[in-house]
Amino acid sequence: MLVKDTPMNIKDTTINDSNYSKLLHNEEYYRHIFKKTEKIVSVVFYILNNTETDKRSETHIGNIAGKAHFAHENALRSLEVKLANSKEVLEQFAQAMVALDSTLRISSASGVIAQDILYAVTAEIDTVLRSLSPYIANDVSMASMLSMQTTSSPASTSTMTKSPATTPQTTRHEPGRAVAKPSSSPDRRTRIHTILEAKGEATIKDISEIVTDCSEKTVQRELNAMIEQNVVKRHGERRWSKYSVV
Fold it and tell me: DSSP labels for 3-68?
């Protein structure tokens, strides 16, 4: 009986060790999430320093700089938390990255940031967000697998030159294995919420011009869900409808 119990006790200790160690000491998290975020923020400030400033672009540049600083602060803060207590901090980190993504898209739609630069940076932000999801769910094994896929996949090295809107995401169907789901609606809703906060009011078309990884019908479904949750309100009817944050 003692012999049978020993492996289980060792396993429990291993799980507890990983759950109660700071994310700073998690090599996969540090390399594939924190360091990548640092690089993204560095690239963003390099872009801003080389963007011509005028009255039209000044506000956008200030907004992007603020969101980039905030994302970096949240990344630093996340290193000091333990996995078992990290959910709230990591969710705030993810929201900060989504806010940076949305601000960049709004600036691009206004002609301040070039489309090819936008695609390169937002593709890297998307990689960080996908890598963060398993940690928020407290699934370390899934996080390790995802970070390995991110570094070993040829697609991950080419995201800096491809648009996320035009690069197809193929899903392999293997017997006995679960099929990966598309990007989760909570992430998309956070982006929609950020856009509405930035714009004040927006139509489905306005949102779809920024959230380019889904159709207008999907955006409408997300907005309807957010209305039911009393997060968003609708003004007007049918195609003339506009939406704003409650």
Answer: HHHHHHHHHHHHHHHHHTSBGGG-HHHIIIIIHHHHHHHHHHHHHHHTSPP-HHHHHHHHHHHHHH
Does the predicted model carry a pTM greater than 0.90? no
Least confident of 117-121, 134-138, 171-175, 220-224: 171-175
φ and ψ of 127, to 5 deg = -60, -45
Which residue in the block uniquely carries the two structure tokens 């929201």?
95
Closest CA to 164 of 224, 104, 243: 104
185-245 CATH choice from 3.30.70.100, 1.10.10.10, 1.10.3720.10, 1.20.59.10? 1.10.10.10
Taking Cα atoms as reference points, which of 88, 76, 47 lies closest to residue 64?
47
d(CA 96, CA 52): 25
